[in-house]
Task: inverse folding
């Protein structure tokens, strides 16, 4: 009896391992369908699979803002609430990126409104003093990344979002245009202006980058 019970437990554990493995290896479409049926493990796999994509998008848009975590979490909350509306017309990564971008733009608008309550906005033409290169010209890889990241944050939202999608996330011009619902020509013109601004900001680093 004891041996039989032990064998049964081992069999259940084996089945559980197989189920977990099958969920982990499931396609996005399968995970979506399972999630629609209330399978929380399936949705957890979606979160784990696409958390890096969402994080890269939100951090690219908001930098070190205190709202980064909230926007990242809200992105997956919005996905969960809209599961029944998801038809698979776009890849899940694209769908999540669109949600993350829209929420990030909302956050930037809130930040802008809050800033306007206390001081007038001004155009930034140079990096903050604490992020410029010292007289020795020595700068390590981490410092370079931080300076580039801060430079991107100095772009206005409509140019920043194009840089994040095209240059950081690797979307094509056509894909970026579809995500933002703007003409491809507008994507190209905004990207060109963003590149000019970044070049001016990063001019002292060009030889080191």
Result:
């Amino acid at each position: 009896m004891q041996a039989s019970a032990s064998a049964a437990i081992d069999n259940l554990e084996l089945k559980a391992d197989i189920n977990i493995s099958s969920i982990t290896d499931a396609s996005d479409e399968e995970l979506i369908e399972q999630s629609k049926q209330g399978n929380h493990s399936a949705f957890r796999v979606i979160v784990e699979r696409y958390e890096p994509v969402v994080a890269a998008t939100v951090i690219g848009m908001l930098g070190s803002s205190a709202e980064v975590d909230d926007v990242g979490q809200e992105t997956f909350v919005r996905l969960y609430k809209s599961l029944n509306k998801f038809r698979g017309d776009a890849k899940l990564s694209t769908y999540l990126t669109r949600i993350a971008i829209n929420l990030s733009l909302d956050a930037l608008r809130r930040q802008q409104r809050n800033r306007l309550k206390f001081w007038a906005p001004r155009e930034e033409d140079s990096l903050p003093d604490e992020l410029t290169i010292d007289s020795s010209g020595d700068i390590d890889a981490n410092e370079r990344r931080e300076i580039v990241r801060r430079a991107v944050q100095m772009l206005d939202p409509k140019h920043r979002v194009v840089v994040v999608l095209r240059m950081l996330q690797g979307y094509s011009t056509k894909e970026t245009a579809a995500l933002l619902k703007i003409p491809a020509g507008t994507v190209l013109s905004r990207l060109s202006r963003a590149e000019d601004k970044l070049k001016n900001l990063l001019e002292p680093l060009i030889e080191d980058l």
About this structure: The chain has a mean pLDDT of 81. The longest helix spans residues 92-116. The chain has nine helices and no strands. The CA atoms of residues 107 and 113 lie 10 Å apart.
